[in-house]
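During the no-cost extension, the postdoctoral fellow (Dr. R.K.) reprocessed legacy sequence entries with the updated structure-token encoder. One reprocessed record is reproduced below for audit purposes.
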Amino acid sequence: MDSDSIPTNLVERFRRLFRFYDRDGDGIHTLTGDFKPVAQRIVQRWQDRPTPFPDLLQLLLDTYGRENSRRDANQDGSVNLEEFLSSHGRVIAAYATNRIGALGFIKAAAGGFFDTLDLDGDGDLTADDLRSFAAAYGHGDAGIAANLNEMLTELKLPPDRLPRHAFLLLVEQYWFDPSEQAPGRRLFDGLELGALNPP
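Re-encoded structure tokens follow.
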């Protein structure tokens, strides 16, 4: 599946996600300019607490590096919007042919990332956890708490706390369910993102 075959609703989400990831606002994603500062901020938040994984910084850098390289079609060290969208087309095609395998990957990858944000290790994310993630990418957080509770309401869950199972469902919906009724469509709402400025 190429980017032209991705449902329009998903394309709009991925365009927004591209802007979210573009920490330095230069219209491309690079490990140094965008993801290394994020990994450092996430690790700094743990301060003297034990981290959920040994050498959390290196784990994050390796993960971000692999993902950016996977999306980097011409292997020039940066990912532009078209490469980003095309990479999602390939992921959607893989999900369609092997949903069980894809859900296993989401559980492992997104579940591991959940642990890096869950500072108190109680199995729930709060608005503060989500604000810290947005702040690592340089984004404001004025609408995060309200957006969190809107998603929780749609999931028929109590307010203010996002449990792991709900987080994994929202991730799956955000990436793969084009429905405008899927609560996961809101996953990166509640943020003020800058305009997309291609290089």
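The mean pLDDT is 93. Helices lie at 8-21, 31-46, 56-71, 81-97, 99-117, 127-136, 144-154, 164-176. The remaining legacy entries will be reprocessed before the final report is submitted.
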